[in-house]
């Protein structure tokens, strides 16, 4: 009897995990398209580095305004419907890119990014608790790592698809463009984003009709949600976790989405592909996390190592030589990438364990506040709005241009180190 029940439990967990895995892939694909879109729009719209950073700002700032409302929506309609609504919002955003591309109006692109960020926030808020609570808490980081492989694996594929569908028919894309070339490149966005919108709409219907179960404790929670936010803020490990994720996402987005812009400034061909290198390193980090956590190393110790590695790589990037190719020649078979670009990609390895470690550590002990806690943690994604902006401002303020902008990574990793050493252990405010 117990074996049968165990098998039923495994089967009941299997389908939700498959659905969640698919959604994590979609989240990664839509999110990491920004790494290609940012330098692409910077080129065809002739944007300054600061204006280009607004492409990411408008995407990630949506989290600040929609995370807590997303939690309220989920409590009202349930997790499954929340996921479907998130994808429907992403579908609308995909359709908005069509008039933006046709008119080449920068404000329309920013609005489309804002809507896309809102949809992704709702989807993130609904899908992340499943991974944490579908199994033992101590192995949550490993499960999130599995989802992370799909999410960041999509980040590897997205720039390749973007380059193949949008840039394959153009020559000299890293040079100065004529107006005719600009028009053609802008129009090449229409069909891919139309196809994305149709796919997202169909997937939203499929999820809505699927037998995905609700999280049991959320479905049984009382309906008096007043005071939930105040109660959640009484958990230091949760609040500091939100701040840690803010700095982490700032660092992650800088590493993943500015590498193409930096490569464009260095005259590197196929600059829209650069995000794939960072994502490959993140996938490698996630795989290592699955192998080591918690069997060999704890979530907390893995977080400490990640923060220290991020600090060391930041120093190498800022003070490295853009004309040196030692790392590429030694380890990458002579691929023509400067050492500084390779080190930025290596940041993906340092970043990989942070989200899988911080999320369960921050939700530890919050009980019925999971949906609110998840929403607060998702708000940490707003760091992706400010990270590239501060990177662009620091780039302008230093005589090292884009390379000097990576100085902003240092305080990010310092706070993550603090959270790993002390913040995650704090259960009461002193």
Q: Helical proportion? A: over 70%
Would you tell me the overall average pLDDT? 84
Strand content: under 5%
Distance between the termini: 49 Å
Give the CATH level 1 class.
Mainly Alpha
Order of helices and strands: HHHHHHHHHHHHHHHHHHHHHH
CATH topology: Growth Hormone, Chain: A
Superfamily (CATH H level) name? MFS general substrate transporter like domains
Low-pLDDT runs? 1-11, 217-224
Label the structural class. Answer: mainly alpha
The tally of structural domains comes to 1
In total, the number of strands is: 0
Largest sheet: none
Question: What is the gyration radius calculated from CA atoms?
Answer: 21 Å
> Number of helix segments?
22
**Which architecture name does CATH use?**
Up-down Bundle
- State the shape: globular
Notes on the protein architecture:
The protein is mainly α. It has a single domain, classed as Growth Hormone, Chain: A (Up-down Bundle), CATH 1.20.1250. The chain has 22 helices and no strands. α6 (106-133) runs antiparallel to α19 (370-379), α12 runs antiparallel to α18 (354-363) and α12 (236-257) runs antiparallel to α22 (409-421). The longest helix is centred in the N-terminal third of the chain and has 31 residues, at 2-32. 53% of the residues are buried. The model is unreliable at 1-11 and 217-224 (pLDDT under 50).
């Amino acid at each position: 009897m117990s074996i049968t029940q165990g098998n039923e439990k495994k089967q009941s967990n299997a389908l939700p995990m498959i659905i969640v895995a698919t959604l994590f892939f979609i989240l990664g694909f839509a999110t990491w398209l920004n790494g290609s879109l940012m330098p692409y729009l910077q080129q065809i719209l002739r944007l300054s580095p600061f204006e280009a950073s607004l492409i990411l700002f408008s995407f990630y700032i949506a989290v600040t305004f929609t995370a807590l409302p997303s939690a309220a929506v989920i409590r009202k309609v349930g997790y499954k419907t929340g996921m479907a609504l998130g994808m429907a919002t992403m579908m609308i955003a995909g359709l908005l890119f069509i008039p933006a591309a046709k008119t080449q109006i920068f404000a329309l692109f920013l609005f489309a990014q804002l809507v896309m960020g809102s949809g992704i926030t709702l989807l993130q808020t609904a899908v992340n608790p499943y991974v944490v609570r579908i199994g033992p808490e101590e192995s949550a980081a490993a499960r999130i790592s599995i989802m992370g492989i799909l999410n960041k694996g999509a980040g590897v594929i997205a720039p390749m698809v973007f380059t193949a569908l949008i840039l394959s028919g153009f020559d000299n894309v890293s040079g100065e463009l004529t107006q005719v070339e600009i028009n053609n490149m802008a129009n090449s966005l229409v069909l891919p984003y139309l196809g994305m919108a149709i796919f997202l709409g169909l997937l939203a219907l499929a999820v809505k009709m699927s037998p995905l179960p609700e999280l049991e404790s959320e479905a049984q929670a009382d309906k008096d949600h007043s005071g939930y936010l105040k109660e959640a803020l009484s958990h230091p490990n949760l609040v500091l976790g939100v701040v840690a994720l803010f700095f982490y996402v700032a660092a992650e987005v800088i590493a993943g989405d500015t590498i193409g812009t930096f490569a464009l400034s260095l005259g590197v061909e196929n600059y829209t592909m650069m995000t794939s290198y960072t994502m490959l390193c993140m996938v490698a980090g996630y795989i290592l996390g699955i192998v080591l956590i918690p069997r060999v190393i704890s979530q907390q110790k893995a977080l400490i190592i990640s923060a220290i590695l991020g600090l060391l790589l930041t120093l190498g990037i800022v003070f490295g030589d853009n004309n040196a190719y030692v790392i590429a020649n030694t380890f990458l078979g002579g691929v023509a990438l400067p050492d500084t670009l390779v080190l930025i990609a290596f940041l993906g390895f340092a970043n990989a364990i942070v989200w899988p470690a911080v999320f369960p550590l921050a939700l530890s002990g919050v009980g019925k506040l999971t949906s609110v806690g998840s929403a607060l943690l998702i708000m940490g994604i707003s760091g992706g709005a400010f990270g590239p902006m501060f990177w662009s401002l620091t780039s302008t303020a230093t005589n090292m241009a884009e390379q000097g902008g990576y100085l902003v990574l240092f305080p990010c990793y310092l706070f993550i180190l603090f959270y790993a050493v002390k913040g995650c252990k704090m259960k009461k405010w002193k």
